[in-house]
Amino acid sequence: RLSCIRNNIWLACCGVISAGLAVLSSFGLMLFCGVPFVVTVANAPFLILGVGVDDMFIMIASWEQSLRRKEKSDVKLLLAETYTEAALSVTITTLTDVLAFFIGTWTAFPSVRSFCLYTGTAFVFCYIYTMTFFGAIIVLNHKREQANRHWLTCRKSSQPETKEPESEHPTSMFFKKYYGPFLTNTWTKLLVVLLYAAYLGVSIYGCTQIREGIDLRNLASDDSYVIPYYDDDDKYFSAYGPRVMVVITESVDYWNATVRLGIENCTQNLE
User: Fold this and answer.
1) Which residues contact 1 (CB under 8 A, 6 or more apart)?
2) Which of 141, 149, 116 is nearest to 44 (CA)?
3) How many domains does the chain have?
4) Does 27 fall in a domain?
5) Exposed end of the chain (fewer CB within 10 Å): N or C?
6) Are 255 and 242 a contacting pair, CB within 8 Å?
7) One digit per residue, pLDDT tens: the chain, 271 residues?
8) Nearest to 119 by CA among 19, 252, 204, 215
């Protein structure tokens, strides 16, 4: 916003800080509990940031919708109405994410278990901070606007104070007046169905072309003996291809020279 009073830069920054606090709380708790920190866990902050910023936008949008209802002027009523509209969406999103990652802790790979524990716990903290810390920040920002204070310095601004709620955001107006009616048109709905069918067909074809592959180093702890083993295997033996093993499933008299000779001949023939 161009207004030095209505500008919400600090509100957006606090939304990002809320997600950062969730990451710090999760990492601190897991490290305190002795959960191993592996390299894949370093990707968790990006997931938490995406969900945290999404929750932030939901909260701000619900707050502004509440502000437009002029009969609701009390801060407690405004915040209660904001949580009434936003909390359900935020809660369902958090529950699905937390369940998905905590189910991933059942895997046999220790590094994947650690990643899921760190990330799932971070989602829980992200929800807690959004419902508490960020809600308080919204109220403080509202009080700053009501006091006609500058967004950066928080000093009284020379700009005339306005008590009227801000008009609807242009993006919201676009989806409400143009995109919504366009999408509900009969021909548009038919086109969407055809596009989805084409997308589904391409996706199914793509799934048949996927090749499985994973760097096994990433599935081990940082101090595991497996990592130097795979490094040496790749450095010294990668040119030879996969190993071929011959398994004898019956009892063999290895002390018999004739039997040993037969095994050697069999190995030579295979080679």
Assistant:
1) 7, 8
2) 116
3) 1
4) yes
5) C
6) no
7) 778 888 888 899 999 999 999 999 999 999 999 999 988 899 999 999 999 999 999 999 899 888 887 655 788 999 999 999 899 999 999 999 999 999 999 988 888 899 999 999 999 999 999 999 999 999 999 998 888 888 888 888 776 655 555 667 788 788 888 999 999 999 999 999 999 999 999 999 999 988 777 777 777 877 888 889 988 988 888 887 777 787 888 888 999 999 999 999 988 998 8
8) 19
Q: Does some domain include residue 81?
A: yes
The reply to whether 129 falls in a domain is yes
The token pair at 71 is 């009969």
Domain coverage including residue 92: 8-159
Alpha carbon distances (Å) from 29 to 16, 52, 98, 200: 20, 19, 16, 42
Q: Point out which residues pair with 149 in neighbouring strands.
A: 156
Residue 175 falls inside a structural domain: no
- Using the structure block, give the residue that is written with the tokens 């950062």: 20
Specify the 3-state DSSP secondary structure of 156. strand
At position 53, the amino acid (one-letter code) is: V
Q: Could you tell me the two tokens for 12?
A: 């957006």
Q: Count H helices, E strands: the chain?
A: 10, 0
The residue whose two tokens read 């916003």 is 1
Kindly state the tokens that stand for 80: 């209660």
Residues present in the chain in total: 271
